[in-house]
Amino acid sequence: MINVEHLYVYSHLQSDVDTANAFYQGLQSRSRSLITKMSAALSFYDAELMAADESVILGYLNEKDELKIYRHEFELLFKKRAHILSMDEENLLAKAGDVLSASAQTFSILNNADLTFPTIKDENGDDVQLSQGRYAMFLESTDREVRKNAFKGIYQSYGQFKNTFASTLSSNLKEHNFTADVRHFASARQRALFANHIDESVYDALVEAVNEKLPLLQKYVALRKKVLKLDDLRMYDLYVPMVEELEMKFTFENAKEIILDALSVMGDEYVSVLKEAFNSRWIDSLENKGKRSGAYSSGSYGTNPFILMNWQDNLDNVYTLAHELGHSVHSYYTRKYQPFIYGDYSIFLAEVASTTNENLLTAYLLKKFKDVKIQAFVLNHYLDGVKGTIYRQTQFAEFEHLIHLADQNGVALTSETLSNEYEAINKKYYGEEMVYDEEIKLEWARIPHFYYNYYVFQYATGFSAASALSAKILNEGQPAVTAYINYLKSGSSMYPIDALKMAGVDMSTNQVTKDALDVFAQRLEQFEKLI
Amino acid sequence: MSQKELLNRNEVPAEATWDTSTIFKSDEEFEVAYQKAEALLPQASEFQSRLAESSDTLLKAFGISQSTRDQRRASVCLFPPAE
C-alpha cells in the first residue's frame, strides 16, 4: 500500500538534519503539496457520509465484519451533524475562510517578521539585539541586570504596538465566537473542546483545582525570593534556575543507561521498545551544521518512530530524551495495535505519555543520586516544571476563557481592558510576594497560544495525569503498568477521556490535579530543607 | 558551542544518525513511490456520490482513503508551551 505520509516523513527527516539542502527542501515541498491535493480530492468523504442515513450506514457495519472497526469513527462523524450547515452556508463559510483567519495571520506576521526589539547589554557588557529566542535565554541568565534589560526591552516593543495587538487578539476572539455561534455551539470553548471530544467540565475541574492550590504557587514564589537572595522578586526572576549548573556531565551513552534503568519499572515489553529505539537508530542525536534546532518525535503509520535531538551533555537533555521516547513508544504501540484509522492520538493524550516518562525519571534520579547538589537540581527541575506547566498554562487557560466570554457578552476588548484583566489574573496567581512591574500587564500581547483556540489547558491536564500515572506505576507495579500500556495501545480508537480512565485516571474530576499539586507541595518542602 | 565547532552533516558518525532506509532505501525509491502516489490521485474521486451505496462500496472506498486520508497526522511538531 502506498502511504503519502511516508513521502512527507522521509523528506522532512532528510531536510531537518540539513536544512540548507535544496534537494530535500524540494522533496518536502512536493510531498506537502501532494498531501494537500489528496486531502482535497477526498474531502467529499465526510460530507457525503454525514449526509447519509445513519441507520443505513449502521446496517452496513453490522453486515460486514471488516467494517465493524469503523463504528467509533462513524459515531464521531454523526455527532458532528448537529453542527454542519446547509450546503450553501458551508460553501459561504469555506469561501470566507481566509478572511476569517486574517487577524491571526496578521498577528503572526507582526510578531515574527515586522516587530523589532531593542539592543541590550548581555552578561559580558556586549550589545546584543533582542529576539524572541534570545528573550527566553536571557530570562534564564544568572545576571539579574540582563534579565531586567531583556524584560524591559521586549515590552518596550510590545508596548509600542499594544493597540494593534489588542485589535488582532480581539478580532481573533470574534472569529472563534462567530464560528461557534453559526455552527450552533453555546460558546467558543464548547466548539473547541467538542472537536477533541472533551467535555467542558474537564477544563473547569482543572481551573478549580489549580485555584484551590494557588497558595502553594505563592509559597514557591516566596521560596524563590529567599533562595535567589532578592529583596524584591519580579516576574523576570521566575526563569533562572534556583540552583547552580551541575558539574557532572551526562553523555548520550549515560542518558541511555539512566533512561533504561529509570523506565525498567514499565516492564520488559516497554523496555524492549526502548532498546529497539537505541539499537535500530530511531534517534538522530548529535547537533550538526544546519540541523533544525530543538527536539521532536516524528513518524507515521507504517514507519518506526524517529527522534531528533541536538545533544548537549547535561541533565536537561536526559529529560528531553525521556520525553521524546515517551511520544515514540506511544506511537509505536498505537501503530502496532490499531488499524490505520485509529493509528494516531490527540494532543490531550500525547502529552501524558511523554510527561509520565519525565515523572518516572524524576522519581528515579531522586532515589539513585543522594548527592545534595544533584538532589537539589532534580527538585528544582521538577518544581519549575510544575510552575511552568500546571500553574502557568492554567493561568493562560483561565485568561483565554475569560476574554472569549467577555467578547461573547459584548465587552469591547481594548488594550486597556485586556491589560487590566491580565493583571488581575496574574496577581491572583503569583500573589503578594511578587513585585509587579507595569510592563507585565502587556504579557497577553506576546503569547501566540491565545490564537490557538483553547489549546494550552492540555499541557496542564497532561502533567496532572502523568503525575498520577507515574505514582501508580511505582506504587502498584504490574497491574498499573498493564493499564498504562493498554492506553498507549489505544490510539484514537476511544474517547480520550475514556483512554485515560483505562490507564487509571479520571480527568473529569478535579482530584487528579489536586493530587499532582500535593506532590508539588511535598517536593517544595524537600527542596527547602536541602537549600 | 559556537557554529564553527559544529560538524558538517556528512561528518556525523552513522550510529548517531537515524536510519531513514526503513522508509525508503534511497532517494530513487522515494521518487518511485511519489510517482505511484501521484498516479493514485484520479482514483480518489472514484466513489464520489456512491459511498453510501452498499457495504461493499463503503469498504472499498475506505481502502482507497487509507492510503491518503487525514494530513494532520503528518504534522510532527507539537507547539511547545508558552513561557
Descriptors:
heterodimer; A: 531 residues; mainly alpha; 3-stranded mixed β-sheet; globular; B: 83 residues; 2 helices; elongated
What does this structure look like?
The complex is a heterodimer of chains A (531) and B (83). Chain A has 531 residues and is mainly alpha-helical. Chain A is built from 24 helices and 7 strands. A 3-stranded mixed beta sheet of chain A has the order 4-6-5, with helices on one face. In chain A, strands 1-2 form a two-stranded antiparallel sheet. A two-stranded parallel ribbon of chain A has the order 3-7. In chain A, 41% of the residues are buried. By secondary structure, chain B is mainly α. Chain B starts with 26 loop residues before the first helix and ends in a 17-residue tail after the last helix. Chain B has a domain at 25-68. Helices cover 31% and strands 0% of the residues of chain B. The chains are: A mainly alpha (531), B mainly alpha (83). Chains A and B meet through α1, α2, α3, α4 and β4 of A and α1 and α2 of B.
Describe the structure concisely for a colleague:
The complex is a heterodimer of chains A (531) and B (83). Chain A has 531 residues and is mainly alpha-helical.
Topology:
The complex is a heterodimer of chains A (531) and B (83).
Chain A lengths: L3 H13 L5 H20 L2 H8 L2 H10 L7 H10 L6 H9 L1 H4 L1 H13 L4 E3 L5 E3 L2 H8 L4 H17 L1 H21 L5 H8 L4 H13 L1 H14 L5 E2 L17 H11 L5 H12 L3 E2 L11 E3 L7 E3 L6 H23 L9 H22 L3 H37 L6 H16 L3 E2 L21 H20 L1 H12 L6 H8 L7 H20 L1
Parallel strand pairs in A: 3-7, 4-6
Antiparallel strand pairs in A: 1-2, 5-6
Helix pairs in contact in A: 1-2, 8-11, 9-10, 11-12, 11-19, 13-19, 13-24, 15-17, 15-18, 16-17, 17-18, 18-19, 18-21, 19-20, 19-21, 19-24, 21-22, 21-24, 22-23
Chain B lengths: L26 H14 L14 H12 L17
